[in-house]
Amino acid sequence: MGLKQRLRATWIELEAAGRMLPHMHRVLPGSHWHIARIIARNAEKYGNYTALRYLDESYTWQEFEDRLARYAGYLRRKGIRQGDVVALLMDNRPDYVFLESAICRLGAISALINTNLIEHALVHAINVGEPKLVIAGSEHAEKLREVVSELCVKESEVILQQEQESDDTHGFATLNADVKKAILVRDNAKTKPDDGMCYIYTSGTTGLPKAAIVTHKRFLLAAHLFGRAIHDAAPDDVIYATLPLYHSNAQWAGFGASVTSAGTLALRRKFSASQFWDDVRKFGATHFIYIGELCRYLLNQPASSRDRDHQLRGGTGNGLRPDIWEEFTGRFGIPVMREFYGATEGNAPMFNIEGRPGMVGRLRPGQLIVKCDLSSGEIVRNAQGLCDPVGVGGTGLFLGKINAVTRFDGYVDNQATQKKVISNVLKQGDTYFNSGDLLTLHEDNWVAFADRVGDTFRWKGENVSTNEVAEVLNAAPGVLESNVYGVQVVGTDGRAGMASLNTDSAFDLDDFAAFVISKLPGYQRPYFIRVQDGMRITGTFKHQKVDYRKEGYDPTKVNGDALYYLDGERYVPIDTALHQKLMSGEVSPR
After folding, report:
1. What are the tens digits of pLDDT across the range 401-446?
2. What separation in angstroms does the CA of 352 have from each of 334, 339, 406?
3. Distance between CA atoms of 538 and 381, rounded to whole angstroms?
4. DSSP strand E in 172-277: where?
5. What are the residue ranges spanned by the domains of the chain?
6. Which of 82, 217, 247, 279 has the fewest CB atoms within 10 Å around its CB?
7. DSSP code at position 303
């Protein structure tokens, strides 16, 4: 990089930092700022500006404040106090952010439950947060009815918000009528920056979802960073969010960014490639948030004369692969895509504010990429027992230094927290957060995402725990044991699920397909299966994954084992012809 480019990069970053500085008093020790208090301020200063749009609904900042105040009154009457936990299970819609903000106003904590979870995983996610109440959209009443007896709360403490009066409540109490009668609560709890604001769930090698603790300080730092520095948004901007609100991306780059900039949040219940550009035009969106797969889906749509008919100034997200970056921005006329990197619970975020294709940002002080076994993620220690950073062009495990500034708040489960901490990295006694990600170092400290390590892979924008999926598959009739891993698929981001199965005579392929579809959400399903006798294990009796990943679903590499592909609702044999279609991208999991 030449001097001119370096100076330009420095200026862009200084400008971004300058936009944040006036608001940093909100995260200082002794501050009582939180997201509900900022909403109240927006209502005072920008009361008639549009805060939220959804379908044909529209709410000003004053109307947003009134809705959250009424929900806060309802929750207070239900006994919710500062420090209590309320589990929230709802699709993207206005009541989600009204409720989350109301919970925040009372100084309570929102446990943001992944709406894809079912059965045991759903029970675990709710119970691990030890909520006092579970509030769910009526769209999730049926699956809650199936597990309500296993929850840590009484059935009377599971309450539905009905989007429509005709929605089936499956016998649960509803809050709609009571909220209308509730007294408005305008006073904001005096929280501390390090108090919990919400739990966001993340998958890991332990199997079931882990509840990452997000403090008010962490939430506000991220919300201001995205709203002010990354989006550079103002009250007349519109941020379009189709990603689920239970994820940190939509929470910080969508909801949080709109609040801290006083801009409009335009919500869609779920992403639709065919409706995306119609929504962008309808809402007058100036920014959007993404995961890489979303951009690929949009590119796969037929070209249109209206592809550039929009007001978008930029997109912000993660996982946009270099092979489609410039094609996407070129076709749709997006001035800049700003990629970021960072685990929900991590302490070492990076931002590519300059929009350099394929990069997630630059290494900052306290951030390291260290040498490791690229198959297992196991750190390679030198003769002194310390870690060696990789050189330019090298790929390794990404670590973030833990100190008073770059804290690691961890999970509700302290044991899970300790597993993410690595000691004696550059010197004896230091501690670092283990991201579990492989990154590649480029010149001038630029960094690109390489892969995930261990027993987790990413598909459809979700982290998939191989252990969690294997536990479900092991309960299928005829399955003696399963070994789950991710495999690369041409033309897609991340890795699709594949399972090697050891089966007996009770195994039936059609029954197994029905089992998979009924028990697992789409992103967790094994799109490829390998049926075999026995299972390869390591010397410590762990399932062998490395060789299985290398062999994948190639019929020439699997030693005669039967291979199948999930084509809609059934598994079909993978022969040479189908394998060629998969490798050419003509056939691909969706």
Report:
1. 999 888 899 899 888 889 899 999 999 999 999 998 899 999 999 9
2. 16, 5, 19
3. 22
4. 173-174, 196-202, 210-215, 238-241, 264-267
5. 32-217, 363-452, 456-584
6. 82
7. P
Q: What is the 3-state secondary structure (H, E, C) of 325-356?
A: HHHHHHHHCCCEEEEEECCCCCCCCEEECCCC
Q: Which of 141-155, 449-463, 534-548 has the highest mean pLDDT?
A: 141-155
Q: How far is CA 237 from CA 234, 259, 282, in A?
A: 5, 11, 14
The DSSP bridge partners found for residue 401 are 432
pLDDT in tens, 34-83: 999 999 999 999 999 999 999 999 999 999 999 999 999 999 999 999 99
32-217 CATH pick, 3.40.50.980, 2.40.160.20, 3.40.50.2300, 3.20.20.70: 3.40.50.980
> Do 547 and 536 meet the contact criterion of CB atoms below 8 Å apart?
yes
**What pTM was computed for the model?**
0.86
CATH T-level assignment (fold) for domain 456-584 = GMP Synthetase; Chain A, domain 3 (3.30.300)
The one-letter amino acid code at 221 reads L
Both tokens assigned to 135: 């509030």
Q: pLDDT band at residue 311, thresholds of 50, 70 and 90?
A: very high
Q: Which of 122, 177, 522, 56 is nearest to 169 (CA)?
A: 177
Say if residues 198 and 100 touch (Cβ distance below 8 Å).
Answer: yes
CATH number for the domain whose boundaries are 363-452 = 2.30.38.10
- The structure tokens listed for 144 are 């809650």
Per-residue model confidence (pLDDT) at position 458 = 82
b/e burial code for range 335-356 (CB count within 10 A of at least 16 → b): eebbbbbbbbbbbbbbbbbbbb
